[in-house]
Amino acid sequence: MGTDDLVTSTAVVGHSVVVSVTGDVDLTSSGHLREVLRDAISESDNVVVDFAGLTFIDSSGLSALVDAHRRARDGGGTLTVRHPTAILRRLLDITRLRTVLVIDPPEPGSLGSGDRS
C-alpha cells in the first residue's frame, strides 16, 4: 500500500458503525468511500466516520460525505465526522459544511453540532 491509497475499516461499537478512513480520498477512491458509507448506513442509524488517518480529500470525497449525511438523515439517523484532520477542517470551513455536519470533536470556540434535523 502506498501512502496515498485509501484504506477503510468498519467496526460496530455499541449502537454505532464506525468507519475509519486512512489515506487519500480523491476522484479515484471516492466511489469506494461512498459504497462503504452506504453499507454502514444500511447497518445502523448512527454512523461515525473517523478521519484521523486521512492524508488528502478533494471535492469528490466531500460529495461522498454529504451524500452519506443525507442518507443517514433521511433514514432518521446521524452521521458524525470524527477526528477531522486540518485539511478536512479547512475544507469544511470553506464550504460551510461544518454548519451542516456533526463534527466530533467540535472546533474550539464553536457550539459543536451541525444540523441534526
Task: Describe the fold and architecture.
By secondary structure, the protein is of the alpha/beta class. The protein has a 5-stranded mixed beta sheet, covered by helices on one side. α3 links the parallel β4 and β5. The C terminus is likely disordered.
Question: Any chance you could write out the topology, listing elements then pairs?
Answer:
Elements: E1 7-13, E2 16-25, H1 30-43, E3 46-57, H2 59-74, E4 78-82, H3 86-94, E5 102-104
Parallel strand pairs: 2-3, 3-4, 4-5
Antiparallel strand pairs: 1-2
Low-confidence stretches: 111-117
What's the architecture, going by CATH? 2-Layer Sandwich
The structural class is alpha/beta
In the CATH hierarchy, what is the superfamily? STAS domain
CATH topology: Transcription Regulator spoIIAA
Number of helices: 3
Rounded average pLDDT: 90
Assign the CATH class. Alpha Beta
Main sheet attributes: strand count, strand direction, barrel closure: 5 strands, mixed
Q: How much strand?
A: 25-35%
Q: What is the share of helical residues?
A: 25-40%
**Cα-to-Cα separation, first versus last residue:** 39 Å
Please provide the ordered H/E string of secondary-structure elements: EEHEHEHE
Assembly state here?
A: single chain
Can you tag this structure with a few keywords?
globular, Transcription Regulator spoIIAA, 117 residues, disordered C terminus, 5 strands
Summarize the structure.
The chain has helices spanning 30-43, 59-74, 86-94; strands at 7-13, 16-25, 46-57, 78-82, 102-104. By secondary structure, the chain is an alpha/beta fold.
